[in-house]
Amino acid sequence: MLRVGLVQTRTPASHAGALAHTEPLIREAASAGATLIVTPECSNILQRDRAKLFAQLEPLESDPAVEGLRALAAELSVWLLIGSALVRRDDGKAANRSVLVAPDGSVAATYDKIHMFDVDLPTGERHRESSAYEAGDRAVVAQAAGAVLGLTICYDVRFPALHAALARAGAQVITVPAAFTRPTGEAHWETLLRARAIETGSFVLAAAQGGVHEDGRGTWGRSTVIAPWGEILAKADHDEPCVLVADLDLEAVTRARAAIPALENARAFAGP
Question: Could you list the residue range(s) of the whole structural domain that residue 101 is in?
């Protein structure tokens, strides 16, 4: 049995503020017995003003919030998935990067968000993530706390092929750290998460940002843990900062995939 903790945050617009906000929530999850703790997308800083954001971005190795979270994981001796950190790449561009931290504080794996949120919503909101971040080009699975994790970030949840590839590569648990907009969150968040869990026979851990942030952005919250058969194991019914804890029976993955062997039954086909 794997006990996981999901941290729901309302990340401030500075590295120092983000670390101060997130640290007590991670400590709460660890004190509840979680050995794998997941934080949301943009855990190190959330600032929608691009000029202000880029003035603060650091490489992953020197990001002050990431450094603090790595030290905290080592102190607590837990696996910590920093759902994503917004960091400066070696080529000077930016990346939206998941960072898996081992219980000794080392970086065990990283994943750069593949799918960029470039949309014009019916509400008038306009987002062009690709204008700020370089998309990743590699799916990532990693061992952590006795489980195989498949790493995704936010908008990736709308792309079933990525999740199927992770499951076929052995992922038992798929992480979906997010900062969902309120309109899309209200309409689609739970449905998408349950669909990805059911079709891959995987646990889904969706730690989310929630509420109205320091920079004026609104995010949906409603962090959720879903089992391979689609049951909701734990859910925040609000967008306030909080901690969810759930126990995962990893054998449920084997049972779900045996009952509905969709991953094995999938076939290639010609286009119309």
Answer: 2-264
